[in-house]
Write a structure and sequence with these properties.
The chain is mainly alpha-helical. Helices cover 55% and strands 11% of the residues. The chain starts with 16 loop residues before the first helix and ends in a 6-residue tail after the last helix.
Length: 173
């Protein structure tokens, strides 16, 4: 039997069993913490259900990781979106609340608008598809903005804003 070819550290491939087990164990505690925050109770049945759900989620994560598919890294632009997102959510929540209160007081319907933004996700590669999916999810997380479509051919995304005046000149970025 010929020896297996050696991979360099830079070549992608499935991780070792030890790394998978360490990754699985590393996901258990944070996921369990999220579960406890969501359910808001310490009833024994919820604790057991949470442990089972966390074990299933961590196992699914490691199964996907074992295939070697999940090796995408977040780029600087995506990390910037993630860092700014909590503030955008709070800020746009206030904008939407003010828009709805003023519309109720004046008995006028708020008028949103559609606008086109540059997406920076051109092409049909898996990386570009991941970028478009990330833009869609993160771009629509704030209440005033909704990503309608991202076009890979024209490298644009169509965005709807409830309060058009607040969104003037602002992008999802």
């Amino acid at each position: 039997m010929p020896p297996k070819p050696q991979r360099s550290r830079s070549e992608p491939g499935p991780p070792s069993i030890a790394r998978l087990l360490a990754g699985w164990a590393g996901w258990l505690l944070p996921l369990y913490g999220v579960w406890l925050v969501y359910v808001g109770t310490t009833a024994w049945l919820e604790l057991v259900a949470g442990a089972c759900a966390v074990a299933i989620a961590a196992t699914a994560h490691q199964a996907v990781r074992r295939t070697g598919v999940g090796g995408q890294r977040l780029d600087r632009r995506t990390l910037t979106l993630l860092v700014r997102l909590p503030w955008r959510i709070v800020e746009e929540f206030a904008v939407v609340l003010w828009t709805l209160v003023s519309a109720a007081a004046s008995r006028e319907r708020p008028h949103g608008r559609l606008r086109t933004l540059r997406a920076d996700a051109t092409g049909l590669t898996p990386s570009a598809a991941g970028r478009r999916a990330t833009l869609t999810i993160l771009g629509g997380a704030a209440p005033n903005t909704y990503v309608v479509d991202v076009d890979p051919e024209t490298d644009t995304m169509l965005v709807h804003d409830l309060d058009a005046a607040h969104a003037k000149g602002r992008g999802v970025e």
